[in-house]
Design goal:
By secondary structure, this protein is mainly α. The chain is built from 23 helices and eight strands. A hairpin with a 2-residue loop joins strand 2 and strand 3.
Length: 629
């Protein structure tokens, strides 16, 4: 089906007429199956079996009657459409084989990527991977066994031009295909013909005001821009209102109140709660939080988003969806531990939507009267479950923002050419970022709660808790933070227990530290021993130099006195006079010199030389132990 959808997109780009595109597929299905006589039901079945298309029979019938029969390619005999001589029995769908090859190449690359990520030599079930990939492309909001790996694969290849072109064809073809399935009249494209109230839940309202990050706000702006286009259209006969229920208002008020409490108590914040971080960022007092609350509601008014509630949604019991049995069925369906109150809130909202619809959900998105856009997984899972949505073609009571953006784009017949650009949500990389970001945020919340619990029980120290909390804060949890450089980190985080990993790494570091300390102590001891040995060798040498130099200096004076007395002696001088002269000169020298100064000078010079030699020796020893030689 995905390969067929890629061809659908290309044919649409050439023909700009949905019926002509579908007619091409019908021709090919007739030829490939050699089915020369058929009715509408059989033709619909051929499209399903050959190309995976599950199209409304009314659309198929229009193609058979207003295209093939009108062109003379088919005739009607005994209630059957029969091919005529004008029908080309060799006509097959050009480009389909190439699209299948593109799909197979993507699937092969995906399997290789999964094997690398999981570090497994075991063979991977190709059919299971293909099934998960198909589910992911059709609805990336649903998690399956390989969802995270598929998101990683798409984000990692965001700069691969050939890969992206193949995915774009599939994504845009899927928009056309689902548009046909969920639009009441595809022959009325280009305008919005009926009134519709679109209700937004709390998270979508936060996105509208930019409190969930740049990408989420961009997604909302794309959606809201299409709403404005529909309401401004000169051809319009209907109006789209964007509103919220009082329950959403209560949740918003509670959220801002919680922000005030967090500010007052200076509490830590769950790192995944982007809105809470942005609200508290820059606040210096409680009044700053209140000011941001006022600004938030002003933003909603500027965007023409208002609160809307009917006085009594239960005046017609046939529209009521709340019951204990339904709650139990939903709990069994999702096998989770959510409280009955959570399901009760969801069913209350669905009842309001059903009341406005007057019970009509199988009339196409443009005639359904009311729908809720939500970002809450339990709300969306419930809306799409068979417990609530009895027919797969029914418009669900709640849906994703990209679902509504795609339906509006299709109904307004925007197309994919031109310079107007396409909504951000249409891009496969964006969907992958959103899907992986959702998983990371859930994991961060889980780890944060576990961290708080272990800290309260005294199982971890405050220092470790701070370290882990810092790690959680720097994880790339916002969709715009996920790219080919950070996606590996994100996937590794999803596949590991951060707290256990941190404690394990701390234990390893402590062990290494202790071993290192012991080794360092031993090395230090050896190094100090060598330094002491060097001192023991150099110190005696310095002492000898000192005493030798002093002896030489002091011996100079007697020798000088003796020489002077000897060379001053005359023939008349006796030996006694010579000795007396020597003693007089020696006494003169002794009075002239300062032994203290001489000793100090010599000591200083010898000490300087000793220190130079010792420093050089120490450097050699330090270098020896630093290099481990």
């Amino acid at each position: 089906m995905l390969a067929s959808i890629a061809v659908f997109r290309e044919l649409y780009d050439c023909n700009k007429d949905i019926y002509d595109v579908i007619t091409n597929f019908i021709r090919s299905a007739i030829v490939l199956n050699s089915c020369w006589s058929l009715d509408t039901s059989k033709c619909s079945r051929l499209l399903r079996e050959t190309y995976g298309f599950d199209l409304p029979e009314a659309v198929v019938k229009t193609c058979l009657k207003n295209r093939l029969k009108k062109n003379g390619e088919l005739d009607i005999k005994d209630g059957q459409f029969v091919v005529t001589e004008h029908f080309n029995k060799t006509d097959t769908l050009i480009g389909h084989d190439e699209a299948v090859s593109d799909y197979d190449r993507i699937l092969t690359d995906l399997i290789e990527n999964i094997q690398k990520i999981r570090l497994s030599d075991e063979s991977i079930d190709i059919e299971e991977v293909s099934k998960c990939f198909n589910e992911y492309i059709i609805n990336p909001n649903y998690k399956n066994e390989y969802s995270n790996e598929i998101s990683h694969f798409i984000i990692s290849n965001q700069k691969n031009k050939e890969f992206n072109e193949s995915l774009i064809k599939i994504e845009e073809g899927l928009i056309l295909y689902t548009g046909i399935r969920f639009t009441a009249g595809i022959n009325e494209l280009g305008s919005w013909d009926n009134d519709l109230i679109i209700f937004l839940d709390t998270e979508i309202l936060f996105s509208a005001a930019g409190l969930n990050g740049e990408l989420y706000q961009k997604l909302f702006n794309d959606f809201n821009g299409l709403v404005d286009d529909a309401n401004r259209s000169k051809q319009r006969n209907g109006k789209i209102q964007v509103c919220y229920f009082s329950e959403a208002e209560d949740e918003i008020n509670s959220f801002f109140y919680a922000a005030e409490r967090v500010f007052e108590r200076n509490e830590s914040i769950d790192p995944s709660k982007t809105a809470m971080h942005l609200i508290l960022n820059g606040c210096k007092s409680r009044s700053d939080v209140a000011t941001k609350k006022v600004a938030f509601y002003d933003t909603l008014k500027r965007l023409k988003i208002s609160k809307k509630d009917h006085t009594n949604y239960y005046q017609h019991p046939e529209y009521n969806l709340e019951s204990i049995d339904t709650i139990n069925l939903l709990k069994d369906r999702f096998n989770n531990k959510d409280e009955d109150e959570e399901y009760s809130k969801i069913l209350k909202t669905f009842t309001k939507i059903n009341y406005i619809r007057k019970g009509e959900s199988s009339v196409g998105i443009d005639k359904v009267k009311a729908i809720l856009i939500s970002a809450k997984r339990l709300t969306l899972n419930s809306a799409f479950s068979e417990v609530i949505r009895k027919d797969s073609r029914d418009i669900p009571f709640a849906t994703y923002i990209d679902f509504m953006t795609e339906r509006l784009w299709f109904k307004l017949n925007k197309g994919f050419g031109g310079d107007q650009g396409i909504p951000t949500s249409f891009k496969a990389v964006t969907k992958a970022q959103l899907a992986l970001s959702s998983q990371i945020s859930s994991q961060v919340t889980k780890e944060y709660k576990k961290l708080q619990s272990q800290l309260e029980k005294g199982l971890i120290s405050r220092d470790i808790a701070i370290q882990i909390n810092t790690e959680l804060r720097i994880k790339p949890s916002k969709p715009e933070e996920l790219n080919d450089n950070t996606v590996d980190i994100a996937l590794e985080f999803l596949s590991s227990d951060l707290i256990e990993k941190t404690l394990r790494e701390k234990s390893i570091l402590e062990t290494k530290s202790k071993e290192g300390e012991a080794a360092n102590a031993q090395l230090l001891k050896l190094k100090n021993n060598e330094k002491n040995e060097a001192k023991e060798i150099l110190r005696p040498q310095a002492k000898f130099k000192y005493y030798f130099t002093i002896s030489v200096i002091y011996s100079v004076f007697p020798v000088a006195a003796a020489l002077i007395a000897y060379f001053s002696k005359t023939a008349q001088d006796s030996n006694f006079a010579l000795i007396t002269g020597f003693c007089t000169l020696l006494a003169f020298f002794i009075q002239l010199i300062s032994t203290k100064r001489i000793n100090k000078f010599v000591c200083r010079q010898i000490s300087r030389n000793y220190k130079i030699k010792l420093t050089s020796k120490f450097k050699a020893i330090n270098k020896k132990y630093a290099t481990g030689t």
